[in-house]
Amino acid sequence: MKKIPIMLSTLTLAMTGASLRAPAAALGEVVAEPSLNQELFMSARLAAEKVNAPLKTNYFDERVWIDAIIPRTGNLIVDIHVTDEKQAVRRIAVATASYDRVSMTQADKDWSNWDGVALPDWTLRGRILNLDSAQKDFHRLVSVDYRDRNYDLVENNRQDVVYFYAELGGWDESEPEVIRWKMDYRTCSKNVNFPAVGSAVCGKNINTETGEMTYLYQGDKNPELSFATWADEYKSILQADIDRLDQNIQELERAEIIKVDTAIANYESEAQELRTRIYEAADSEELDAEITALEDRLSNLRKKHFPEVTPDGTTGDEDDEKNPDKEEDNETGEDFETDDDSGTDDDFGAGGDDDDKNDNGTGNQDKDKGDTDNINTEPTTGTSGTEVTTPDKRPDS
Prior knowledge:
alpha+beta
């Protein structure tokens, strides 16, 4: 009987912060006539697995599911049919993640623990729909853009993933049931036959043998994909960033004189930032080696043009200590390399990827990088309820 307190403690720890129900049938299948110890152990294990389970992908619940997605317009066709008289839809949320603000692994963890109040700060586009009245049958288009406008997910949402969240119940002040997952529509949007314009639909397809749900273009179950995985596509994105940085460094290497080190410092920071992102890409070791080579070239440039200011804080002029009588470069003892300008004119302009392109014919091109003050909080009322919106953000580069 000494094991019982341990099992109770394990169960308590596993279920902390979560409301979980271990199905009796599942327990019965494993242990036909479970003892107290066995039952506690199985409950704790099931609870721990559910707490730590990865975020579901393309999840199909009998009450809530995404029937289809229209990637070029950024609309989801959401279907909700609730038969339990105590349950009804209270809140829906959708979000896409900016790939250079957060890794997909971290975004999955954040969404698994999201409280449903304010969208994560890595959200590229997203919205929260708070319904005014209980909805048991909900079938409508839900745009991922908080302005409820067209938003091309193929061009802007490179990960091809939309995060979804729904609350059922809670109208009588009880704890609502939360359903959340992410939908991956890569099998449709990366189909080489997927049209570049228009309102092509990616419809859900459920494999009757495996139960796996995918989204397909015109029912093509064996599509030829331009990028099979996100890791492959992410490698191509990072490779383009590395190549661009390489071109910028070549510009510096051709310069005979560099008055200020602003450009070098900027590119050093950019190289460091690139290194923090490569682990999620395919062949990350190759990318790391390329970044290291770029950093070495930047270090050589710094030593060449600014030998007295090295990154480690040393002077770079060892002869000064050995020969204290060494004369200054001029009679006043001042260095020649002095420039009071801010250095902005000598910054060779590290640009960024423009993930936020024209919105499918709206004529509005987003220039909202880092725009955290332009938040539309004006509620809209009607059958869809109020909306909590997010700022018009795009990935930082």
